[in-house]
Design a protein that fits this description.
Shape: globular
Radius of gyration: 27 Å
Largest sheet: 7 strands, mixed
Distance between the termini: 105 Å
Strand content: 15-25%
Structural class: alpha/beta
Helix content: 40-55%
Bound molecules: flavin-adenine dinucleotide
Number of helices: 15
Strand order of the largest sheet: 7-6-15-16-17-14-18
C-alpha cells in the first residue's frame, strides 16, 4: 500500500531524495516556504555514524554557494568553520612556491569540511517543524504516472511513499533520473575522464600547519597534478589527480617514494615517508564523471538538482556551488510564478540548463588549465593583461575566474563575456603589434639605419640632460 505523506498545513508535500549537500540545503529552502518536506537518504544519519563514506574530505565554497546558504541563514555558521584561501600557491619542481591570487585583495574562496557542512545542513533542516528526515531509505524507483516512490530499507523491506513533488538530489548516479532516461526527448550524456583521484593527509608540524594555510596549494605537472586544501585541525588534505594507467603502474611503497621524489619532492617530508607508503594504497583511486542532461523536470511531478542534474569534474571548485545555486534559482522562480509547479518546473529547466551545461564545460576546460597552463609564461602574461585591464575598466574586462567564483553572473553569460573579451584583447594586442611594426618600418624607410642611429643617440642625450640643446 502507498503511504501518502500528509502535510500539517494545507501546503503540498515535497519529497527530497538524497540528504547530501544539495538535498539537505534544498530541504531548508522548501521548509522555509512552508511545504511539508520529507527527506529520504539512503545512508544512516551521518551525524551519528563513526565513519562517513563519501567523496572529497574538504571543498572550496565560494560566492554562489554562500548566497544560497545566506538565504536559509546558514552562511555565518559555515563561513566561521571555513579557512580562507586567497590564492593558488604554485609549487614548482625545485620547491619554490609562487602565489597567483584568485581575485582582488579581500576576495577568497573557503576550504570547508564536507562532512561538517552536510551535518550542519541536516540539523538546520531538522529545525523546521514541517521537515522530516528519513534515513536508511534508498530510492529504488518511482512511478511517473502516480508519483509513487519505492524505497528499500536496510533490512530489505520495501516501502511505497507518495508526495506532490519529487526533488531528485541523489547525486551523480541518481536513481530519480533513471525514469527520465525512459522518456522521449530526454538528452543525456556522461563522460568519465581518464584521471582518477586519491587523497592523502599532511599532518601539522609542531602543532602548526605544515605549509602556509591561506592558499590552495597546487603542484601542476602538466599531465597530472596534486592539490592541497587546509583543514581546521591544521592538517592539509592533498588530492592527487592522475591518469588511471599511471596510478596502476605504482604498486609498491618504494615506487610511491620514487614517484614523489621525481615530481613532488617537497611534499615527501611533509606527508611523511611511512604515511605516504601506507596511505597511497589505503583506497583505490576514485573515478570522476561529467554528466549533462536536459530537461531537468518531468511534468509537474519531478525535478533534478545538484549532481543528479549535472555532475561536473571538480577542477573549477563549482560542483557544490552550482548545486547550491540551483536551490536559489528554483526558489527565485517559485517567487515569480507563485509556487505553481506546472509553470515553475519548465521555467527552471529553461533558465538553468544553459548555465549548468556552461559550468560543466568550464570545469572540463579548467581540468587542463590547472595542471598545465599555469606552468606557461604566455598564460601568466595573458592573466596579467586581463588583470591590468580589469583595473582600468572594471566593468568591461573581468577575469573569467572572478565572474565564475565571485559573482552570480549566469554561468553561460560569463562564458559569453569571456569569449568576447578574449577577442577584444587579442585584437587589441594585434593592433598594438601592428602599430609597432608599421611605425618601425616607417622609421627604417624614412631614416636609413645610420641616420636612425644618430637620431636615437641625439634623443637619448637629450633625455639624459634636457638642458643640453645639442
Ligand atoms: P551528493 O553529495 O553525491 O549527495 C547525494 C546524496 O544522495 C548522498 O547523501 C547519497 O547517499 C544520497 N543517495 C544516492 N542515491 C540515493 C538513493 N537511491 N536514495 C536515497 N538517497 C540516495 N564542489 C565544489 O563546489 N567545490 C569543490 O571544491 C569541490 N571539490 C570536489 C572534489 C572532488 C574530488 C569531488 C569528487 C567533487 C568535488 N566537488 C566540489 C563537487 C561536489 O562534491 C558535488 O557537486 C556535491 O557533492 C553535489 O552534492 P549533491 O548533494 O548533489 O550530491
Amino acid at each position: 500500500s502507498t503511504n501518502k505523506r500528509k502535510s500539517t498545513n494545507n501546503k503540498k508535500v515535497v519529497a527530497v531524495v538524497g540528504g547530501g549537500l544539495v538535498g539537505a540545503l534544498n530541504a531548508c529552502f522548501f521548509a522555509k516556504r512552508g511545504f511539508q518536506v520529507e527527506v529520504f537518504e539512503s545512508r544512516e544519519d551521518i551525524r551519528r555514524a563513526k565513519i562517513v563514506k563519501g567523496r572529497s574530505i574538504n571543498l572550496a565554497l565560494s560566492h554562489r554557494g554562500r548566497q544560497a546558504l545566506k538565504h536559509v541563514g546558514m552562511e555565518d555558521t559555515i563561513v566561521s568553520n571555513g579557512i580562507p584561501m586567497h590564492s593558488r600557491m604554485i609549487h614548482s619542481l625545485n620547491g619554490t612556491q609562487s602565489p597567483i591570487p584568485y581575485g582582488k585583495k579581500g576576495q577568497y574562496i573557503l576550504s570547508v569540511d564536507r562532512a561538517n557542512l552536510n551535518k550542519e545542513l541536516l540539523s538546520a533542516a531538522e529545525m523546521y517543524p514541517n521537515a522530516n528526515l528519513n534515513f536508511a531509505h534508498k530510492l529504488l524507483d518511482w512511478n511517473t504516472e502516480t508519483g509513487a516512490m519505492t524505497f528499500v530499507r536496510v533490512d530489505g523491506a520495501k516501502e511505497e511513499i507518495q508526495a506532490d513533488l519529487i526533488v531528485g538530489c541523489d547525486g551523480a548516479f541518481s536513481a530519480v533520473r533513471k525514469q527520465f532516461l525512459r522518456q522521449s526527448r530526454f538528452n543525456y550524456s556522461q563522460t568519465y575522464i581518464p584521471h582518477g583521484y586519491l587523497e592523502l593527509t599532511m599532518p601539522p608540524v609542531n602543532g602548526e600547519f605544515a605549509m602556509k594555510p591561506n592558499h590552495l596549494h597546487i603542484w601542476p605537472r602538466n599531465t597530472f597534478m596534486m592539490i592541497a586544501l587546509p583543514n581546521l585541525d591544521k592538517t592539509f588534505t592533498c588530492t592527487l589527480f592522475m591518469p588511471f594507467d599511471k596510478f596502476e603502474k605504482i604498486t609498491t611503497g618504494n615506487q610511491v617514494i620514487d614517484f614523489f621524489q621525481e615530481y613532488f619532492p617537497d611534499a615527501i617530508q611533509l606527508i611523511g615517508v611511512d604515511a605516504l607508503k601506507r596511505d597511497y594504497f589505503r583506497l583505490p583511486a576514485q573515478a570522476m564523471v561529467s554528466v549533462k542532461c536536459s530537461p531537468y523536470h518531468l511534468g509537474d511531478k519531478c525535478v533534478l538538482m545538484g549532481d543528479a542534474a549535472h555532475a561536473v569534474v571538480p577542477f573549477y571548485g563549482q560542483g557544490m556551488n552550482a548545486g547550491f545555486e540551483d536551490c536559489l534559482v528554483f526558489n527565485e522562480i517559485m517567487d515569480q510564478l507563485n509556487e505553481d509547479f506546472s509553470a515553475v518546473l519548465p521555467e527552471y529547466t529553461r533558465i538553468r540548463v544553459p548555465d549548468d551545461h556552461a559550468i560543466a564545460d568550464l570545469a572540463m576546460y579548467n581540468y587542463v588549465e590547472m595542471r598545465a597552463h599555469v606552468n606557461s609564461k604566455w598564460f601568466l602574461f595573458q592573466k596579467y593583461v586581463v588583470n591590468f585591464l580589469n583595473m582600468i575598466m572594471p566593468r568591461t574586462i573581468i577575469p573569467l575566474y572572478t565572474m565564475v567564483t565571485f559573482t552570480r553572473m549566469r554561468y553561460h553569460e560569463a562564458v559569453k563575456h569571456w569569449h568576447w573579451q578574449n577577442k577584444v584583447i587579442k585584437q587589441g594586442l594585434f593592433a598594438c603589434a601592428a602599430v609597432c611594426l608599421s611605425g618601425g618600418s616607417y622609421l627604417l624607410l624614412r631614416y636609413p639605419p645610420k641616420m636612425l642611429y644618430v637620431l636615437v643617440e641625439q634623443l637619448w642625450t637629450r633625455l639624459q640632460d634636457p638642458k643640453n640643446p645639442s
